[in-house]
C-alpha cells in the first residue's frame, strides 16, 4: 500500500454555535498531522449570530491550517450543510464532526494509522459523553447515548458526529438526503450497507460529545428524532415503529447500563432506575412527534 499520508477533509456543519465551533477548530488546528495533508471545511447553515464571523476570523489567523468557510443558506438541515462541504472536499478520507464535539490532537494520526492498516471505507468512532453538571439528563446520556459499536454492527450506520469515509464510496452511495432534519446518518449508512460497503468501528479513536444537560435540550433532540423517523421509516416500518411506545425490558436496560457505568463511578443504581423512567419519557416524546409529523404530511397531501 502507498506509504504516503492520505489527504483528509474534515467537514463540520454549524448553526449558532460560536463558542464550541471555536474550540473544535482550535483543536483541529493543533493536530499532530502534516498541515499540507488535511483541510477543515466549516459550513455555516444560516446562523443568526456571530458564528460565521468567528469561523472567518479563525480561518484568517491560524498557524497555516487550511480552513475553508462555506455557507448553506437555502436548506436548513445539517445534512444539506454536510453535502455542501462534500462538494468542496479534496480529501481521500472525509471525517464528519459536529460543531459541539471536541477531539484530541492525535485524531488524524490515529485515523491514518487505522486506514493504512485496514483500508476501511466506512468507520464509526467511539464517542465519550462529557458534562460539567451531574443531573439526570447528563447521567441518562452517559448511560444510553451513542453506543456506536451497536449502531454499526446491528443498525448499519454511524452518526455523523463521528464518521469517517473514503470519498470514493460517494460515487456509489451518493450524498446525504438533504431534506431530512434527523436520521440522515442512518439512511446514508443503510444505503452504504446495501451497496456492500464494509462498516467498521474503532473503540480506541475518541470523539468527545457534550451531554444534553436540561429537559429543553433533551426534548429538542428527541422531538427532532421523532420527526426524522417519519421520513426515514418506509411502509410497514411506520407501523412497526408504533411499538416504540413499549418500554424496554427493565432487566435489559439495567444490565446494559451497569456495563456502561463502569466508566462513570458516580452513577448509582438509583440513577439507573431514574434513567429507565427517563428512557420511557424519551420514547413518548419521540413517538408523539413521529405521529404528529406523519399526520401533518398527510394533511398537506389531501389539501
How would you describe this structure to a colleague?
The protein is of the alpha/beta class and 303 residues long. The chain folds into 2 domains: 8-212, Spore Coat Polysaccharide Biosynthesis Protein SpsA, Chain A, CATH 3.90.550; 216-302, no CATH class. Helices cover 48% and strands 17% of the residues. The protein has helices at residues 18-29, 51-60, 78-88, 107-118, 136-144, 148-155, 170-173, 184-194, 215-232, 236-240, 250-260, 269-302, and strands spanning 8-14, 38-44, 66-71, 93-96, 102-103, 122-130, 163-166, 199-210. The protein has an 8-stranded mixed beta sheet, with helices on both faces. Helix 1 links the parallel strand 1 and strand 2 (38-44).
Strand arrangement, major sheet: 3-2-1-4-7-6-8-5
Task: Characterize the quaternary organization of these chains.
Answer: single chain
User: In percent terms, what proportion of residues is strand?
Assistant: 15-25%
Radius of gyration in whole Å, from Cα? Answer: 20 Å
Task: Please indicate the count of domains.
Answer: 2
Task: Count every helix, treating DSSP H or I runs of 4 or more residues as helices.
Answer: 12
Based on secondary structure, the structural category is: alpha/beta
Largest sheet: 8 strands, mixed
CATH architecture of the largest domain: Alpha-Beta Complex
Strand elements, count: 8
Text of the CATH class of the largest domain: Alpha Beta
Amino acid at each position: 500500500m502507498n506509504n504516503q499520508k492520505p489527504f483528509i477533509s474534515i467537514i463540520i456543519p454549524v448553526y449558532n454555535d460560536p463558542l464550541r465551533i471555536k474550540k473544535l477548530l482550535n483543536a483541529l488546528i493543533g493536530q499532530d498531522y502534516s498541515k499540507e495533508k488535511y483541510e477543515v471545511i466549516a459550513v455555516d447553515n444560516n446562523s443568526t449570530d456571530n458564528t460565521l464571523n468567528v469561523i472567518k476570523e479563525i480561518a484568517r489567523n491560524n498557524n497555516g491550517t487550511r480552513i475553508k468557510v462555506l455557507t448553506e443558506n437555502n436548506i436548513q438541515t445539517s445534512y444539506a450543510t454536510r453535502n455542501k462541504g462534500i462538494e468542496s472536499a479534496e480529501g481521500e478520507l472525509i471525517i464528519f464532526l459536529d460543531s459541539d464535539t471536541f477531539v484530541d490532537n492525535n485524531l488524524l494520526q490515529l485515523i491514518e494509522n487505522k486506514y493504512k492498516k485496514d483500508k476501511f471505507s466506512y468507520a464509526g468512532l467511539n464517542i465519550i459523553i462529557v458534562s460539567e453538571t451531574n443531573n439526570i439528563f447528563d447521567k441518562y446520556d452517559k448511560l444510553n447515548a451513542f453506543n456506536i459499536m451497536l449502531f454499526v454492527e446491528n443498525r448499519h450506520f454511524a452518526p455523523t458526529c463521528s464518521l469517517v469515509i473514503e470519498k470514493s464510496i460517494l460515487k456509489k452511495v451518493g450524498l446525504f438526503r438533504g431534506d431530512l432534519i434527523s436520521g440522515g446518518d442512518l439512511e446514508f449508512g443503510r444505503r452504504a450497507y446495501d451497496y456492500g460497503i464494509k462498516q467498521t468501528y474503532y473503540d480506541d479513536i475518541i470523539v468527545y460529545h457534550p451531554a444534553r444537560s436540561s429537559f429543553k435540550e433533551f426534548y429538542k433532540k428527541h422531538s427532532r428524532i421523532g420527526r426524522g423517523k417519519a421520513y426515514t421509516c418506509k411502509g410497514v416500518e411506520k407501523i412497526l415503529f408504533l411499538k416504540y411506545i413499549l418500554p424496554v425490558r427493565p432487566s435489559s436496560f439495567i444490565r446494559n447500563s451497569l456495563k456502561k457505568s463502569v466508566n462513570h463511578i458516580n452513577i448509582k443504581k438509583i440513577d439507573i432506575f431514574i434513567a429507565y423512567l427517563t428512557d420511557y419519557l424519551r420514547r413518548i416524546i419521540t413517538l408523539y412527534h413521529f405521529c404528529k409529523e406523519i399526520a401533518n404530511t398527510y394533511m398537506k397531501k389531501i389539501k
